[in-house]
Amino acid sequence: MKVRVSARIRTLALSAGIGCSVVSVAATLDRVEITHDDGRYHVLANSFLDAAPSAVHAVLLNFDDDAYAEISEIYKESAYLEPDGDGTPIVFTHVKGCLLLFCRSMRRVERLEVVTPRLIRTLVVPDRSDFRYAMSEWVLEPESGGTRVTYNMTVQPDFKLPPFIGPLFLRRFLLRGGVDAIDRIEELAAEIAASQQDAW
């Protein structure tokens, strides 16, 4: 099954102070595809964020002190753990979601690979997670003063989902955790960019 969504997310204007200094935030979600194949769920999303790639990069790599809760309410915990034996960073996230009366907490421990400044990849450590397999990739490309973001994620849970409700629940979880969060990622990136300018 494949679900495609195209949407203009929103434009947010924040004004503060007598001078009404304005920060304009407008995230555009151009494409979303969710597919389910042999127990694995795949998400592919393409979006434009009105923020520099370096600032978006900083938001996506901030796992300390449950910072991912700032991205989406489904994240209850996030942190860096002790690096792997080869020095690869290890990150932890704990999410919780509900659909009707079905609720589920899910934990992931993942290897974090910053392949290039424009490519961030995570790969789950199955014996420390609630997933048999999970991989995510964020590709960040400069575009028109902002960032073109391509998000690709595949997960295979290591737990049983109830018939009918389970697949719908997992699709909702995938959307809220990665796709619906793009406007908040943009807001946080804009705040980082503004603080960097203030520092100068």
Plain-language structure description:
- The chain has about 200 residues and is of the alpha+beta class.
- The protein has one domain (about 1-200): Alpha-D-Glucose-1,6-Bisphosphate, Chain A, domain 4 (2-Layer Sandwich).
- The chain has helices at about 55-60, 165-180, 180-200; strands at about 1-15, 20-35, 40-50, 75-80, 90-100, 100-115, 120-125, 130-145, 145-155.
- It has a 9-stranded antiparallel sheet.
- Helix 1 (about 55-60) packs across helix 3.
- The longest helix has 18 residues, at about 180-200.
- The radius of gyration is 17 Å and the shape is globular.
- The termini are far apart.
- Mean pLDDT is about 85; it is low at about 1-25.
The ordered H/E elements are EEEHEEEEEEHH
Secondary structure tally: strands: 9
- What is the 3D shape? globular
Structural class assignment: alpha+beta
Regions with little confidence, pLDDT below 50 for 5+ residues: 1-24
Mean pLDDT: 83
**Name of the CATH class:** Alpha Beta
Proportion of residues in β-strands? over 45%
For this structure, what is the CATH homologous superfamily? START domain
Tell me the distance between the termini.
Answer: 50 Å
Relative helix content: 10-25%
Radius of gyration: 17 Å
CATH architecture: 2-Layer Sandwich
Number of domains: 1
Helices, by number, come to: 3
* Largest sheet descriptor: 9 strands, antiparallel
Fold-level CATH name:
Alpha-D-Glucose-1,6-Bisphosphate, Chain A, domain 4
Strand order of the largest sheet: 1-2-3-9-8-7-6-5-4
